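Q: What does the assembly look like in three dimensions?
Context provided by user:
Components: two
Sequences:
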Amino acid sequence: MSDLLSLSSITPRSWQGYAALALLAGAILLWPLVDAAPGYGVAIAALIFLLLLLAIEADNFTPAIGVVLLFLGAHGAAWLLLAGITGNEGTARASFYLLLAAAWLLAWRCVTVLSALRPTSRWAATALRLIIPTIFGAWILIIWEAVTRGAGIPFILLPPPSAIGVRIANSLPVLAADVRQTIFKAVIFGYVVGSGAGFLAAIAADRVPFLRRGLLPIGNMVSALPIIGVAPIMVMWFGFDWQSKAAVVIIMTFFPMLVNTVAGLAASGHMERDLMRTYASSYWQTLFKLRLPAAAPFIFNALKINSTLALIGAIVAEFFGTPVVGMGFRISTEVGRMNIDMVWAEIAVAALAGSVFYGVVALFERAVTFWHPSVRGG
Amino acid sequence: MTGTSPAVVSASKLGLTFQTSDGPVQALSNVDLTIGKGEFVSFIGPSGCGKTTLLRVIADLEKPTSGTISVNGMTPEQARQCRAYGYVFQAAALYPWRTIERNVALPLEIMGLSKAEQAARIKRTLDLVNLGGFEQKYPWQLSGGMQQRASIARALAFDADLLLMDEPFGALDEIVRDHLNQQLLELWERTNKTICFVTHSIPEAVYLSTRIIVMSPRPGRVSDVIESTLPKQRPLDIRETPEFLAIAARVRDGLRAGHSYED
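A: Here is the predicted structure of the complete assembly.
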């Protein structure tokens, strides 16, 4: 093979490059890639080798060209490997995984080079901040896809991400209805009411000493209630529709907000409070002008914790009775019908929605607590 | 001096005992004090001599446990409710979420002044401390000296006649400190305020004050009172004159007498 000849002239510059070269040699020794009859065409196999060698050689170019070669080589080879497994599912041999590992190592090298870049323009820095985690996430999917299809893992145990993607694309109306029911009704309502109530309770506890002694232990106890015990009771109280799920979310989000706000209200310094005293400032003036702004980082912590708690609470609560729509309902029924790809589709949508929810809260946090050392950086 | 003008602060037999877990600690004992209008009085002494505590008692941030004290002829609490004094702390204590302008506006907002009145006073006091042009900056964008100047502007903004300053320049380097001392003297002369100034620096106390009150610890008490004979106009190089050095020597003697190192 012509590739074998060129192996001698390739000079890697990183340990990932050397390791990838060794893996390539191993792949040739353990040839072929799959056991099945059609297998990989010689041209495709040669192209995979060429792309990987190109990526190994990339470090000998300038960083800008090198990183492009690394990216194209590693991901082109991965793409060809995944495309070729179609029709050969479950027959992959060690050679297939060695090539995959080589491509993964080169993608690692690509991210290392990218991380070391210090772009001068603002949008290049932003693009870089997005590209690096994207490559990282893409490789989780690539390895997942390659292992499930290469080893022929049963669909029920773990479907490949491509099948989940197809299921999402084909079930958009159902998924949209579930998101509307679970997130836009139960989660948002419960989150706003639960966090709001926790906040107001914290202020009340701060203002009235006996509440501080009475309310905090009770709030603590409520937060310790097991959600799978509370959810069926809420369904009995508030019915099958989203109101009972919102009630569960309220119970789950109340306490983190209460505790964090109470801690935040104690966060302002002695000197700052003495200053307000020298102005003969009233309780409410001190609260609004000093203590609440100082508590903002704590309050936003609670809002971020609650954004994920609310989603978990609403989905789990739907397991205990719901109309025939909702993310938790869908997961529980589709598991029973062995439609695991639909379960994974709901999981993916929930993860996406949770990340967006969290991201929006984090953006608000940056805007409001711009003055805090953790945000302004120093 | 004190006989001709009405007393702004007058204390007699003032004492304060803190109850701590290690038993009572006598922070102030038997302090007699009269401060007249327009005076610049420094309190000097080693740490633990009660100079900050005394200032906090005047400001009604601590309650005395014995003796009497009046501020502007009222109890300290009434004086605080009337916003009779501006207080400058050891650190600037500016609120990081407010710009310099909004920080100076803080006491004015609390006192319910109109927007137009607030704007006029902010401009006037920021000019007074030479911070014009920094209105829109946030405190963390300014140097330590500028932050402390902004906090002085905040204490001046509502025009109280009494200014209480607790080691305001203690955390600053000597060059900045000299500069701010000079500016403070100019400001005092222009505004004719009464200033109580806590410090542990002898040159600072002698340079600034019309009267220096030397304090000593365990229990905190007044050990000497020194009237300054320096003229009101004080350029920085007055600190090399024999008159200045003589006063400084007397303060040092007073500190040494009140603080026996033998024990």
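Follow-up: Chain B has a mean pLDDT of 87.
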